[in-house]
Amino acid sequence: MSTTCELCNAASESIDHLFYICPVIKQLWRDIGTALGTSFNFSNRIALWEEMWDFSRPRSSRLQAQVDKIIIPATLWAIWLGRNNLIFSGERFYIENIWDNAIAFVSAWGCSLAGARRVRIVRGELQIEPS
Is the N end or the C end of the chain the one with fewer CB atoms within 10 Å? Predict the structure, then answer.
């Protein structure tokens, strides 16, 4: 079995490469950050955890803070599922599908875990409706 990254075909796949270093994934993080009005530019697990638990960013509400904590895990899960679908099912990997899945997870988890009535991204802006 090849250890070459199936997404960029340029490097050996590792956890760090898959989630933070791969240029395809770095672009995904930039796009999600832009849509959320922030920037995600981490290259290792420590930087990711620091970003996820950064309480210094201004948030409009407690609910916003709870949904913010869901974004990174939801994106990691979408990346992992997309990679596994590619490896084990032969499905094509489209960054747009990863983006869509990450947003779907944020929406579902935002409602079930954070208690929002509705979470979505409209024209690049995160919208949270309280319950």
Answer: N
Residue linked to tokens 């849509």: 35
CA distance from start to end of the chain:
48
Distance CA 109, CA 7 (A): 26
Asked whether the beta carbons of 127 and 120 are under 8 A apart, the reply is: yes
Residue type (1 letter), 8: C
pTM of the model: 0.84
Judge whether residue 55 has pLDDT over 60.
Answer: no
* Predicted pLDDT at 9: 86
Instruction: Return the number of other C-beta atoms located less than 10 Å from residue 121's C-beta.
Output: 16
φ/ψ of residue 117, rounded to 5: -75, -40
Cβ atoms within 10 Å of 127's Cβ, excluding its own: 11
SS3 per-residue string spanning the chain: CCCECCCCCCCECCHHHHHHHCHHHHHHHHHHHHHCCCCCCCCCHHHHHHHHCCCCCCCCCHHHHHHHHHHHHHHHHHHHHHHHHHHHHCCCCCHHHHHHHHHHHHHHHHHHCCCEEEEEEECCEEEEEEC
